[in-house]
Amino acid sequence: MNRRQFIQSTLGTVGAMWVAGCGSEERVLTQPTLTLGQIDLSFHAAAAAVVARILTDHGHPVEFNTALHEEMFARMQRKEVDLLSSAWLPGSHGAYLAPFENEVEKLSVLYNPYAFWGVPDYVPEDAVSAVADLLKPDVTERMTKVIQGIGPGAGISRFSVEIMQAYGLGSAGYEFRNGTQQDCEDAFTRAVEEKRWVVVPLWHPQHLHHRYRIRELAEPKGLLRGKDEATLILRKEQLSKIEPEALRMLRRMHLGNVEVTYLDYLINVEKKSPAEAAARWFQENPEVVERWRNG
After folding, report:
1. What are phi and psi of 286, to 5 degrees?
2. Dist. CA 241–CA 238, nearest whole Å
3. Could you list the residue ranges that cross the membrane (predicted)?
C-alpha cells in the first residue's frame, strides 16, 4: 500500500544509533553527534525517525535514547538527551516539562494529538455515544468490563483513571488496567474478532485507525484535555551544535496526524523499521521536504 492509498483509506475511515546509509544513499557524517529522545511507543519512534533523517542528511550522527514518559523527561532534564520528539503540550506532558521548561527551545509542532475513549463502530451509537452511556444497565450487561490501557505515565492513562473515578465506572464493574501498547492493541483486536463490545482508551495518531472504524465517545467533563501540540524540543545549549540548514528544516517541519498514522502503519503493519518508514516517507513526499528546506 502506498501513501496515497493509505491516506485515502484513512480519511475514509476516521474522521541504538542512526548512521549513514539508513534507508537512503550513503552520507558522510561530520557534524557533532546528537542524542534524540523518543518515548517508547511506535508513533513516537515514527516521528523521531523523520527528525533523525533530517539530522543525518546534514551530517549529524544520531543516537537514540528511548524510555517511557516520565523517565524520558527526567533524562532530558539531566542533559542526557539533546532533542525530544516529542512533548505533547500542554495536556499530556506539560507537567513533566514544567520543572525545566526554561532550559529548552520549542522548535516546531510535528502534529496535533489527542486522547479519547472509543468503541468499535458495530456497537450501536444509539446505545453508546458518550462515556456516561457505559452506566446504562443494558450496556453494562454487554460491554467488556476490562478497559485495557498503556503505561501509567501516558496522558491517556492518567486521564482514564480520572474518568473511572468521575463517572463511578468501578461501581458498575469496570476496571482500567495499565499495560503496554501491545496489550492495549491486542485487547481491542481480540474483542473485534469476537464482535464483543469493548472500550479502548486510544489517541490520534495511531495505526489502528487505518484498520478499524473506532467511534469516539463524548466526554463533556473535559477530562481528556482536548488537542495537544506534539512539540519537538531541544536543550538550548545544543542550538549552536546543529548545522544551520538542518535547524531551519526542524523549525519548519510539520507532519500532521495522518502522516504520523501512515508512518505508524508502516512500522506496525508492514513491519518496516522506523528508519525504513522514514526513508519511504521522504521518497513519497519530496515537495514537503523541499518546503521545509526552502520555506
Report:
1. -60, -30
2. 5
3. none
Burial of residue 135, with CB atoms counted within 10 A of its CB: 0-12 exposed, 13-18 middle, 19 or more buried: middle
The per-residue pLDDT for 155 is: 93
Give the whole-angstrom CA distance, residue 113 versus residue 97: 17
The C-alpha atoms of residue 92 and residue 75 are separated, in whole angstroms, by: 17
The enclosing H or E element of 229 equals strand 229-235
Q: In this predicted structure, what is the pLDDT of residue 2?
A: 52
Q: Does domain 114-216 have CATH number 3.40.190.100?
A: yes
* Alpha carbons 89 and 229: distance in angstroms, whole number: 5
pTM of the predicted structure, to 2 decimals: 0.85
Q: Cα–Cα distances in Å, from 162 out to 73, 133, 155, 168, 219? A: 23, 17, 11, 10, 12
107 closest CA partner among 51, 63, 40: 51
Mutual angle of helices 274-284 and 286-294, in 10-degree steps = 80
pLDDT tens for each residue of 166-204: 999 999 999 999 999 999 999 999 999 999 999 999 999
Q: Which CATH architecture has domain 3-113+227-294?
A: 3-Layer(aba) Sandwich (3.40)
Neighbours of 294 (CB within 10 A): 10
Q: How buried is 33 (Cβ within 10 angstroms: 0-12 exposed, 13-18 middle, 19+ buried)?
A: middle
Which sequence spans correspond to the domains of the chain? 3-113+227-294, 114-216
Q: How far is CA 238 from CA 72, 82, 83, 207, in A?
A: 17, 7, 9, 33
Low-confidence ranges of the chain (pLDDT < 50): 4-15, 18-25
138 membership: H or E segment, kind and range: helix 137-142
Maximal C-alpha separation, the chain = 65
Q: How many helices and strands in the chain, by DSSP H and E?
A: 12, 11
